[in-house]
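Exercise 7 asks you to align residues with tokens for two separate proteins.
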Amino acid sequence: MTIIMNSTVSSTDSKPVDVLDSADSKTHIVPGGHGHAFEVKKGSSFRIVDIHGQQIVDMMAWVLPYPSSLEHLSMSYTRYALNGNAPPAVGDCLVTNKQEPIFKLTADVCHTHDMTFMACNPAFYAEKGLKGHRSCAENIAEAMKPWGMRSYLEATAVDPFNVFQNTPDMTLKDLGCSRPGDFVEFEVLKDAVVGVSSCPYDVVSEVLVSCLLLYDKRGLAQALPFGLDAANMRQTGVL
């Protein structure tokens, strides 16, 4: 698979940008503090990669067809399925509120993720005197509009899988502890729509980078920040 990254796109862009579309693959840039949604099919896989390090990615998912299926990725059901052993290890599955597997974790370089905290939301920032601050709940709701999501409150009904988020163990290492090139990869077990947000939380950290999503009919989806071309990605083992 050939991947072309547009390294000239600025991370200050306010909207996601498609930089490659073909029959086999699609490259999508998700600016820092914004979100994106994409469909995945059973039998495919997707990867979320943090190239620059310390970028938390909130991930939610709904089984298709949305919203009529009423089935979604559930952290409480997943914690139960894992007998409380969170976060999942490679080979473990994330499950839905129907108590059925939706994604299988097939690779994990960071090994640090959160399954307890909600997505940041407008009220969360308003309490901190930051009314109007972007939030993961709003980012994902905006991205889910084409599927019929009408309000960020629909997103807050689903607790996210907070990729690369180090809670509640912040006393041991940073909140965002992922290193450049860290990634997680999932095998898709149900047709689903996935919503992701490059978390805009900057109250205690100024880290805010953009992510790039690559996904193709073979099943590979990746979230990558700006500034790395395909050759460098291959050299670093990301691809």
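Second protein for Exercise 7:
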Amino acid sequence: MGYPDTFEGFMVSSHKNWSDFKKQEYKPKPFEEYDVDILIEACGVCGSDVHTITGGWGEANLPLCVGHEIIGKAIKTGNKVTTVKQGDRVGVGAQIWACLKCKVCKSDNENYCPHQVGMLQFWQAKAGPGKKIAVLGIGGLGHFALLWASALGAETYALSHSPEKEKDALALGAKEFICTKDKDWAKPWAFTFNFILNTADMTHTFNLAEYMSTLAVNGTFHNVGLPDEPLPQLKAQDFAPNGAQIGASHIGSRPEVLDMLKLASEKDIKPYIETLDVGERGCKEAVERVKVNDVHYRFTLVNFDKAFPARQ
């Protein structure tokens, strides 16, 4: 049928064959008064896509077209849209809808809307001068965190079990690189960090008490990496020596996204990306390499006009 009755994408039909993408049409939800249709120019690929198509986060509705961190051009806007007009260059994160009516949405926390349809929630760390921030895991999310934490003026440290990432971590803004493979690595850093941002995907394998010991008094170990497996078991006593806290957050809100984009523009922040042509082969390579952490550090799918010639 074609647009606007149907959209077209590269889709996965089973969790077993999670990297086998086929181009097919699908029917979008009904277009509503606050909606915007976007002609996509580029699309990111991250760990959350892999967790979803493998079924690691639970069984998904299949067939499924994943992908977010989208850049494109608005080609249709609902009659109540006020911030975007047709022809504008726009971006989309990991969330495409919220009710905008509940008390959560009305407090500028639509990213936690209980009715939502699904950025790194780092702004809440209040990173800035005088704060010591450690970023755990130097991958897609982690490299973004190093860029932003240092741009905000925080004293920034990189924690990683991969010593080969030290050069990149320092270039991304880390003051020091700490290899968590080293024996007793945590001891020299006891009572140091105000905030550890955990972007890693293997937290279930960590000795969390060891990481918690590096937090300053009342410091926070904050999770934005969301692995398939449960967190390791902890005792209440593991929190007591420094009054440490552990938590997690969802994606950022729209005001936070706008603040982060403004900072990126002012500080000329640029991520490390690799580009692949969108298509059955490109999508397959992207998710398979993300699965084994073989990306430097974020994949972006491009050349959509070539893959979808009928849309031109």
